[in-house]
Design goal:
By secondary structure, this protein is mainly α. About 65% of the residues lie in helices and about 0% in strands.
């Protein structure tokens, strides 16, 4: 098998001429990613988890090597030796390498969680089931409405900081029934302000004074409005793009 054909398998174009084996390869790598994440969901060790680890990491190593040896074909604008030398320093190559090294004992075991980053490779599976076009449409809407969305984000960040600052000073010396302070630090106030603005309100931090409760009521009501703004902008933009797509199709 020549390297051009090899690259078409591991980096398919997803057009009508894409070989069936390319789709199988993507599905196989998807399964390897899934089973590599299963041991991270449990604390204990077992033979099954050990096998999952070895099988998936072996697949990742082979995938990494295959992408490396076809780097010059993938990046034809670079000289052959430059492509080989620079490939390990590309973002995707670094992500792949970080997902492999912890399992080889070359990094601390706690870094095994970095393998979760490989979930981004699932985008290839999404492309297989023809959802990628819709994802690109959504990304285009976000880019198109970025000024409005960034403005809303700035308003939300300012409101979170201002509300946290006010509440921190209002409840600075207030104590909960268990004797602990309502806000041990300003970070606690920021945490409270964020959960209140987003209307989550975990209830682990709450005001005890009447003034603090009134501020919480106002913050919750304004939070609904602020959170609804980007949702409306994104929804309207997305529907507008869908209408354009359907009109062009007709």
């Amino acid at each position: 098998m020549n390297r051009e054909k090899l690259l078409s398998i591991i980096e398919p174009s997803y057009d009508k001429n894409t070989p069936f084996i390319s789709h199988l390869y993507d599905i196989f790598m998807f399964l390897m990613i899934v089973i590599s994440l299963i041991p991270l969901m449990y604390r204990g060790e077992s033979i099954m988890f050990y096998l999952f680890e070895k099988i998936s990491v072996s697949a990742f190593i082979i995938d990494y090597i295959l992408r490396w040896i076809t780097a010059d074909i993938k990046y034809p604008e670079k000289k052959k030796w430059v492509a080989f030398v620079t490939y390990p320093f590309t973002v995707i190559a670094i992500i792949d390498l970080l997902s492999i090294l912890p399992a080889l004992g070359l990094l601390h075991r706690s870094l095994k969680a970095l393998r979760v980053i490989r979930v981004f490779m699932l985008v290839r599976i999404i492309r297989l089931i023809r959802y990628m076009k819709r994802i690109w449409t959504l990304l285009y809407v976000l880019k198109k409405e970025r000024v409005v969305l960034l403005t809303v984000l700035a308003i939300a960040m300012f409101y979170i900081f201002a509300t946290a600052l006010i509440m921190y000073n209002v409840e600075m010396y207030r104590e909960l029934p268990d004797g602990s302070l309502v806000f041990e630090s300003f970070l606690d106030a920021l945490y409270w302000s964020t959960t209140t603005l987003t209307t989550i309100g975990y209830g682990d931090i709450y005001p005890v004074s009447d003034v603090g409760k009134i501020i919480t009521i106002i913050s919750s009501i304004l939070g609904v409005a602020i959170i609804a703004l980007p949702t409306g902008v994104i929804t309207a933009g997305y529907l507008d793009e869908l209408r354009k797509y359907r009109k062009d199709k007709e």
